[in-house]
Each structure stands twice: as C-alpha cells, then as structure tokens.
Design a protein that fits this description.
The complex is a heterodimer of chains A (111) and B (572). Chain A has 111 residues and is of the alpha/beta class. Chain A has one domain (2-109): STAS domain (Transcription Regulator spoIIAA, 2-Layer Sandwich), CATH 3.30.750.24. Helix content of chain A is 39%, strand content 31%. Chain A is built from four helices and five strands; from the N terminus they run ββαβαβαβα. Chain A has helices at 25-37, 55-67, 82-91, 103-109, and strands at 2-7, 12-20, 42-53, 74-78, 99-100. Chain A has a five-stranded mixed sheet. In chain A, α1 (25-37) packs parallel to α2 (55-67). The longest helix of chain A is centred in the N-terminal third of the chain and has 13 residues, at 25-37. Chain A is globular and about 30 Å long. Chain B is α+β, with helices and mostly antiparallel strands. Chain B folds into three domains: 19-271, 4-Layer Sandwich (Metallo-beta-lactamase, Chain A), CATH 3.60.15; 281-409, Butyryl-CoA Dehydrogenase, subunit A, domain 3, CATH 1.20.140; 411-435 and 464-572, Histidine kinase-like ATPase, C-terminal domain (Heat Shock Protein 90). Chain B is 41% helix and 19% strand. Chain B has helices at residues 61-73, 89-97, 99-103, 112-119, 225-241, 257-271, 282-319, 323-330, 335-353, 359-376, 379-383, 388-405, 419-431, 437-443, 447-459, 486-500, 532-545, and strands at residues 19-20, 28-32, 43-47, 52-55, 80-83, 107-111, 142-144, 150-151, 155-159, 172-177, 183-187, 196-200, 203-207, 246-249, 255-256, 414-417, 468-473, 480-483, 505-513, 516-524, 548-552, 558-564. The termini of chain B are far apart. Classes of the chains: A alpha/beta (111), B alpha+beta (572). Chain A binds chain B through residues 19, 21-23, 52-56, 58-59, 62, 65-66, 82-83, 85-93, 95-96, and chain B through 300-301, 303-305, 307-309, 311-312, 315, 318, 335-336, 338-340, 342-343, 346, 459, 461, 463, 496, 499-502, 527, 529.
Chain lengths: 111, 572
C-alpha cells in the first residue's frame, strides 16, 4: 500500500493505492492520525487505486470518522474503485461518511 | 555420538536428537520432524548394531543433506537401508534423486506393489503427476511382503501373518538387517496399496495411515475405502494388544499410542461415510484449485461486508453512548484473525500464479484456511444481528468448499419453488428493515427486545434505495424446480451485485420458455465491473440452485437464470 498526501486549499487529499489489509491498515491509520494530530480536520481519501479493503481497513475509516465529528470537521472518500465502492455500499458505510464520485464533487460539497 | 538416556518408563520421544528406542537395548532413534505440508514427510533414522535404517527419506534435498550429516556424525561407516512406508513422492523423492543415495550405496526396501510402481516409473501411484514431477530409473533391493521368505548375508525376511478376530489376517513380515534387531513390517493398504507400518521395539512408524481419511488425501490414486477400513481395524487391534507405546507418523508430531488409537477409532467411523468420492486426479485438482481461488475472492468480499456492517452498528452504538454493546458487537467475529487468514491465502495464490505452487497445493491450502474460518465463524450470534441471508451465504461458501474438497459434489436439493412468491419475499426482505419504527415503539417497554430490534434495524442496509425497480411478470409462471434454501439467497446475491455496481435501475422479468422457467435480471446505468471470476462464481452458485446461468454483458448487463419447471418427477 502507498499513501500520498496533498495539501489542498481547505482540506488534505490522501491518495491511497494498493491493498488496504491487516498488514497495511495500521500504516494508513498512523498517517491519518498524524495528520489529525497536526490539526488537519478535513480529510478526503482518494481510493481509486485501492483494489481491496479488508475489515481492518474499514475499521480505520470508522475510527477516523469517530475522530472527525466536529461541526467544521469533514471526512469523505472519493473515486473509490468499483471493488471498494461495492464493499462500502454493501456494508452500509454510506450512512457514516459521504462517498463522492470525483474529487471535484467533494470540493463543491465542502465549500 | 551424544545419546539421550531416558529414565525407565519414560518413553517421550524428542525430535532432532538421538535417543534409545523403548523396548530395545541396541537401537537408537533420530526423528526428523517437519511442519506438516505436502512437499515432504518426516524422516526417522534407526541406528542398529552394525547398520542404519532410514525410514522415509522425504521430498526435499536439504532434508536429506541434514540426515546424511547426522549419519556422518555417528562416526561409524555402516550400510544404510532406506525403508519407505509407501511410494508417494513426498516420502521417497530424495531416495530417487539425491546423489548421496547412489554414492553411499543405500539399499531401498519397499512393499512389493510400491517397488513395482517405482521401477515402472508410475506417476499415478506415486502421485508424481499431481505435482508435475518426472521419475527416474530406480532399482528396489528389498521387496517387502512379496510372499516368500528370504535370507542372504545382508538381510532376512520371514512372514508371520497375525490372525485378527473378525477379519482377514494382518499380513506381517519380520525384517532383520545384518546383526540388527528385527523390524516388524505390517501391510496396511488403503491410503495406497503399498502402505506399510513398521515396528521397532515399542515404536510404530505409521506412515500416512492416520491421515488417510482426511479431505484432499482420501481419493488419491490408489486410495481404497474398503482396504482402509480393514487396515484401520487391524491396527486398532494391534495397538490394543501389542506393546507399542509411541507412534511416529509420516507427517506431524510424534504421538503416544493412546492418541493414535483414538484417531484410528474416529477414522473407523468416518471412513464408512466416504463412499463414492471423486478421485484426486490432476483434472480434479485443476478444477478445485480454480474453485478455491474464485471462492476465496468471494469469501474475502463477504467477510469484509459482514465485518463492515458490524463496525457500522458498533459505531452508531458508540455514538448512542452504549460502549459495552458497541464492544460486544465489534468482537462478534474475529476480524483480525479472518483478515490474517485471507491474507495468508492471498500470498499463497501469488506464489501459485508465479508457478511456485501447483494446483493440488492450492486446493490443500484453501482446505486448511476454510476449515479455520469455519471454526471461528459464529453463525448463531451473527444471525441475530445481520441479515440472515448474508450469514447463511458466508457459511454455505465454506461448507460447499469442504464438500468438494472432501471429494463429493454439491448436489442441489431441489423442491417446488413458487417463482413469483419467492421473488416477492426476497425483494421485500431486501427493501424493508426487519423492524419498523412502529415495531421499535411497541418494544420500548422491554429493554432487551428493544435493543435487539434497534441493533437489527441499524444493521439493515437498504440496498435498493434510489434504484428504480421494474418487475415484469407473466401472468402464470409455473413453479420452478430449484433448491428452496439457495434460490432466494442467489437472487439476493445478484441484486447485491447490481446494487454494488451502482446501477440506477433493475428490471426483473419472469416467463415460461421451452419447458423452463426463465428469469432475467438486468441492470441499467452503473459501472458494470463484473469480473470473469465473479461470473464463474455465479455460474457455480446457480448450478447449486438447480439452474443454469448466463451473463449477457453489455450496456445493460443481464443475468439470465433458467430452471426446469417443477413436476412431481423432477423433484428430489
């Protein structure tokens, strides 16, 4: 798994690629926690290059949602691969945080 | 040579060191025990007064290197005889190919049928063809249990069959090499026609007898259910009446005789149920490996969904400040363990795809993983929270694989399915939560019932929300001949597939056509990422329902299911 970060105007874009499984999920969690610890309260995860997300990866997403519950906080996912989108949808994650088809949709919604 | 002196009465055998053989004064044992796999067996060295016996050289060159170095450390130049408990290549490959065997003039002792199989390079009986392994010219010096007694300057063989009550005599020979103590040779066919057990003092070397009824092993070429039943009975009798205290198996740890006896008694009951199993041929292995690969992709998706739903419910319970209940729900499935098992399999598949593992390895690995998943998958607890269809399907994936892995086929248990009624029930359950808001109000006086209903409602995911559903039914669709239990779950699988693919509309059509009930489910809009693997999985699932499946790809992917019309004669 690879994680790349980009500081956008009003949020941090986190591009994740590869498999988010038991081995790699803790690394993703560490990176997200570091960003939150630095005061970044608006995170958008681009998961277009994630082929598989295990329950360990899902747990990290929920743990992040729990940390970003303030009025001005935001957590969202964008451009999930079909495989990841299907798991998120069937698992009911769409009720926890928004999933945007494209990064631009998140930008528009978070204005 | 350093030898462990065991106190009298203590007959615990340690691996990787020389020790006295219980019941013999002039023989020492060195066990080489491996982690269980299909590549190589355990090996055992017996050091006798003037010779060495190597039982099962195994399948790995480094194993034989180690064994020869252990032999060299004894510091005495003695003739070596390799005895095979049977000629499967995981037990004997190094005896054929390792140069040390020729250099040291190692004599080979094999049961007569196994000896012939090696000499004619029989890739079926040795299982070499399953592992794409070629064989080489081999000469067997000592033919065990060939009928006639034999005596020369190097070894002698004397037959002395043992009468066993309620059965045929246990075919036995006594093998004496040089001035060594006699070794008992017992014919125990079943796992293979040439399988033997060997006895030295109070130790019985059991080869693969104790695993011969296991899935992925029962059904190998040469396996015989009737011979195995007979051999198991005879060895139970022997363990009950002889002085054997320890059993050294071909794979895995050394066992006290009592434990081996318990395994054999359990086997005696299990072997009877193994009638009509498929032969484990290369074709079977190829088909089952493909099935295992497809199935585990489905298992990993389904278990992620199950874990995800539990996390969502737990997350909401946390928000509702019900931390205890949130924790209970989170811990209902051992998600870390499940993820770990799936990752283990994924790594194995990568090795398989890279050509480092063959079909049969993948089938065995999947068997091992599926068994572990089945052991930790708590169906009952989950069924009270999650959509029961999800839990049923996950459980069924595991049991179906084990059925195929055991050599059986998943046969549809068909009945008369009211096609329209079943579809309606399925659609209702996928659209409506099991508990309405009114139900919750009704239950608000009963805390436990209320919480159960609330959790169940939170776990419900409205998969068809926002999807335009069109149901075109012929006025009179006859009942289908299909599996009553699997049919609605299969329809649900397809609807979930479409929903997960973000379709904007679904059209369901039913009609009678060519004496069949035809059901087509099409998706409109969406991404349509239905992989070949998913298509194969759905085809198999439909077959297990009693129907046939066709996926018509295109702008609007259509799943076409066809079932025979139910008649009195077509029902099972």
């Amino acid at each position: 798994m690879e994680v790349r970060k980009f500081n956008k105007q009003s949020f941090v874009l986190i591009e994740v690629s590869g498999r988010v499984d038991t081995t790699s999920a803790p690394d993703l969690e560490t990176e997200i926690n570091r960003l939150i610890g630095e005061g970044n309260r608006r995170l958008l995860l681009n998961m277009s290059d994630v082929a598989y997300i295990s329950s360990g990866g899902l747990r990290v997403l929920l743990a992040t949602a729990k940390k970003l519950r303030g009025d001005n906080d935001r957590l969202g996912l964008c451009s999930p691969s079909p495989e990841v989108n299907k798991i998120l949808k069937l698992a009911g994650f769409t009720s926890i945080f928004p999933i945007y088809a494209h990064e631009d949709d998140a930008v528009a919604a978070w204005k | 040579m350093r030898m462990t002196q065991l106190p009298p009465g203590n007959e615990i055998i340690s691996q990787g060191e020389w020790q006295e053989v219980p019941g013999l004064e002039n023989t020492a044992l060195f066990p080489y025990i491996r982690k269980i796999d299909t590549i190589s067996s355990n090996s055992y060295l017996l050091l006798q007064r003037d010779n060495l016996i190597l039982i099962d050289p195994g399948g790995l060159p480094e194993q034989t290197d180690t064994i020869f170095s252990v032999i060299d450390d004894t510091g005495r130049d003695r003739p070596i005889t390799a005895l095979l408990t049977h000629v499967h290549i995981d037990h004997c490959l190094q005896a054929l190919f390792h140069p040390g065997f020729r250099e040291r003039g190692v004599a080979l002792g094999v049961q007569a049928e196994g000896a012939s199989a090696l000499e004619r390079k029989d890739t079926r009986l040795t299982q070499a063809r399953l592992f794409s392994q070629e064989l080489c010219d081999t000469k067997v010096g000592i033919r065990l249990l060939a009928g006639a007694d034999h005596s020369d300057t190097r070894y002698s063989l004397h037959g002395c069959d043992i009468p066993v009550p309620d059965g045929k005599a246990l075919e036995m020979q006594s093998l004496t090499i040089g001035a060594g103590e006699p070794i008992g040779v017992y014919h125990t066919p079943g796992h293979s026609p040439d399988s033997i057990c060997l006895k030295a003092g109070n130790i019985l070397f059991t080869g693969d007898l104790l695993f011969a009824a296991n899935p992925g092993i029962a059904g190998l070429c040469g396996w015989s259910q009737s011979d195995l039943v007979s051999s198991v009975k005879k060895m139970i009798w022997l363990l009950e009446h002889d002085t054997i205290t320890v059993c050294c198996p071909g794979h895995g740890r050394i066992l006290p005789a009592g434990q081996a006896l318990a395994i054999l008694r359990k086997m005696e009951r299990n072997v009877a149920s193994l009638s009509g199993i498929d032969e484990i041929s290369p074709e079977w292995a190829r088909e089952t490996a493909l099935y295992a690969d497809d199935l585990m992709a489905e298992v990993s998706e389904l278990f992620s969904v199950i874990a995800g739903r539990l996390y969502v419910v737990s997350h909401i319970m946390d928000e509702l400040e019900e931390a205890g209940e949130a924790e209970r729900i989170r811990s209902l499935v051992g998600t870390d363990v499940i993820d770990g098992l799936i990752e283990d399999f994924t790594r194995f598949v990568e090795e398989y795809r890279a050509g480092r593992k063959v079909d049969v390895h993948l089938t065995l690995k999947a068997g091992q993983i599926v068994q572990k998943l089945d052991d930790i998958f708590g169906r009952e607890d989950l069924g009270t929270i999650l959509d029961p269809s999800l839990v049923r399907r996950a459980g069924r994936l595991l049991t179906d694989y084990m059925t195929v892995f055991r050599g059986f086929r998943v046969e549809p248990l068909t009945g008369e399915v009211d096609t329209l009624g079943s579809l309606n029930t399925c659609l209702q359950s996928i659209r409506e939560s099991p508990y309405s808001e009114e139900d919750l109000l009704e239950l608000s006086d009963d805390i436990d019932a209320y919480q159960k209903a609330l959790i169940s409602r939170l776990a419900f995911v409205p998969l068809l929300k926002g999807i335009d559903l069109e149901f075109q039914r012929s006025p009179a669709v006859p009942p289908a001949c299909a599996c009553l239990e699997r049919f609605p779950d299969f329809i649900r699988t397809i609807l979930e597939e479409l929903s997960g693919n973000e379709v904007t509309g679904i059209t369901i059509k039913t009609r009678e056509r060519d004496r069949s009930v035809e059901l087509s489910i099409s998706g409109r809009g969406g991404v349509h990422s239905i992989s070949d693997q998913k298509e194969r999985f759905l085809k198999r699932e439909c077959r297990s329902c009693g129907g046939t499946f066709v996926l018509i790809r295109g702008k609007e992917p259509t799943f076409l299911l066809t079932f025979p019309i139910a008649t009195g004669q077509s029902l099972e």
